[in-house]
Amino acid sequence: MSSSLLSHGFNKVARILGRDPKKQNFPVLEDHPAAQAHAEVAIETHGDIQNRVQKLYKEFRIFRWSADHPTNNKPFLQSYYVDLSSCGAMVLDALQKIKAKDDSSLSYRMSCREGICGSCAMNNDGTNTVACLEPINADTSKPTVITPLPHMYVIRYLVVDLTDYYQQYRSIEPWLKTERPPEDGREYRQSPADRKKLDGLYECIFCACCTTSCTSYWWNPEEYPGPAALLHAYRWISESRDDFTEERLQALTEDFKRLYRCRTIKNCTANCPKNLSPAGAIHKMKTKHMFSEPMEKVESL
Ligand code: SF4
Ligand code: SF4
Ligand code: FES
């Protein structure tokens, strides 16, 4: 109950009993009518504010299921109500508040809170995103629904199994491969122009938002590396200091189910919280590969 209602009720009872409510409320101000009036207004204003603040409660419906107890429960959405007036602006802030105040069993990954580690990836109202970069939708008339990254095995609540995802990353050999020692014997140097070719690629935080939104990946998770791994493959193909560009491209294209499983649907680019374009990187690799192949072979792809 708000303090405004309490104050109102108290005054009513005081009047029935024939007492001056202002004096009852503020006995120390008995001989200061102006101060009593100010105090009364302050209480009512506070009550009004409290009433308005209550309208900022936002419902979050969060996916619950745990592999620890697979047969006990079916997956379900649990509602939590968060007071937005005392919460940070991002979805991760709301999750932190729920975990701290309402339900310590709520599980999700997070680390940096700055959009750098990529660990807080989840699905927010139908869009994959990292929760620390996603502003809360302040429309309190409808709930925000938070579920794990789609088409992944759930370990617990919002935590999914990324073992295969990291294995696919490993398969593109994401490290510098050279056949020659550095010219100065200390480090491999790169011109500013060559370094610029990595823009739009090196910023990837490997959050998996793109890969888990890709329908080609959903249907071929074992053969198709997915857009995140392919974006990194292109990052190393574009690397001027790397000596294995051709081999990298060949490894991606000798099996049709790798690079060419991409159907250019572009869900990946639409879901990247860092505004990168995995679809664009894949398209450039396809182009690079096609220009290196005889026309008969290209037409058969
Ligand atoms: S390309 Fe974007 S969505 Fe995909 S893993 Fe990298 S940062 Fe995440
Ligand atoms: S463009 Fe390619 S990688 Fe991106 S979502 Fe579509 S099929 Fe997947
Ligand atoms: S917590 Fe690191 S990206 Fe969100």
TrEMBL record:
Pathway membership, UniProt: Carbohydrate metabolism; tricarboxylic acid cycle; fumarate from succinate (eukaryal route): step 1/1
Annotated Gene Ontology cellular component terms: mitochondrial inner membrane; mitochondrion; respiratory chain complex II (succinate dehydrogenase)
Cofactor: [4Fe-4S] cluster; [2Fe-2S] cluster; [3Fe-4S] cluster
Family matches, as InterPro entries: 2Fe-2S_ferredoxin-like_sf (IPR036010), 2Fe2S_fd_BS (IPR006058), Beta-grasp_dom_sf (IPR012675), Helical_ferredxn (IPR009051), SDH/FRD_Iron-Sulfur (IPR050573), Succ_DH/fum_Rdtase_Fe-S (IPR004489), Succ_DH/fum_Rdtase_N (IPR025192)
GO biological process: aerobic respiration; respiratory electron transport chain; tricarboxylic acid cycle
Compartments, as annotated in UniProt: Mitochondrion inner membrane
Enzyme class (EC, first level): oxidoreductase
EC number: 1.3.5.1
A Pfam family reported for this protein in Swiss-Prot or TrEMBL: Fer2_3
Keywords on record: 2Fe-2S, 3Fe-4S, 4Fe-4S, Electron transport, Iron, Iron-sulfur, Metal-binding, Oxidoreductase, Transport, Tricarboxylic acid cycle
Main location: mitochondrion
Topology in membrane: Peripheral membrane protein
Catalytic activity: a quinone + succinate = fumarate + a quinol
UniProt keyword 4Fe-4S, yes or no: yes
GO molecular function, one term: electron transfer activity
Domain spans labelled Succinate dehydogenase/fumarate reductase N-terminal: 60-166
Functional summary from the UniProt entry: Iron-sulfur protein (IP) subunit of succinate dehydrogenase (SDH) that is involved in complex II of the mitochondrial electron transport chain and is responsible for transferring electrons from succinate to ubiquinone (coenzyme Q).
Family assignment from sequence similarity: Belongs to the succinate dehydrogenase/fumarate reductase iron-sulfur protein family.
Subunit structure, interactors included: Component of complex II composed of eight subunits in plants: four classical SDH subunits SDH1, SDH2, SDH3 and SDH4 (a flavoprotein (FP), an iron-sulfur protein (IP), and a cytochrome b composed of a large and a small subunit.), as well as four subunits unknown in mitochondria from bacteria and heterotrophic eukaryotes.
UniProt-listed PANTHER family: SUCCINATE DEHYDROGENASE [UBIQUINONE] IRON-SULFUR SUBUNIT 3, MITOCHONDRIAL, SUCCINATE DEHYDROGENASE IRON-SULFUR PROTEIN
Listed name of the protein: succinate dehydrogenase
Organism expressing this protein natively: Theobroma cacao
